[in-house]
């Protein structure tokens, strides 16, 4: 399982996961959710609760959300 680290202070940003490539994320503060989108190859996305430790999958890879203040 790999960690996806996002900053709660940045509403939109990108990060890189070694096995998947570049991801973009957007935080929706009003619903306490984050939308995460793969940017390379066939785009894939998911919207999950903005909660530290939330586990989700993209392209069959299990990921864990790491939210930094």
Automatic annotation (TrEMBL):
Q: What is this protein called?
A: Uncharacterized protein
Q: Which organism is it from?
A: Enterococcus caccae ATCC BAA-1240
């Amino acid at each position: 399982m790999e960690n996806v680290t996002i900053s709660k202070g940045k509403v939109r940003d990108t990060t890189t996961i070694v096995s998947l490539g570049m991801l973009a994320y957007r935080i929706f503060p009003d619903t306490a959710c984050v939308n995460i989108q793969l940017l390379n190859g066939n785009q894939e996305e998911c919207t999950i609760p903005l909660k530290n430790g939330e586990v989700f999958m993209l392209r069959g890879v299990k990921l864990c959300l790491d939210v930094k203040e």
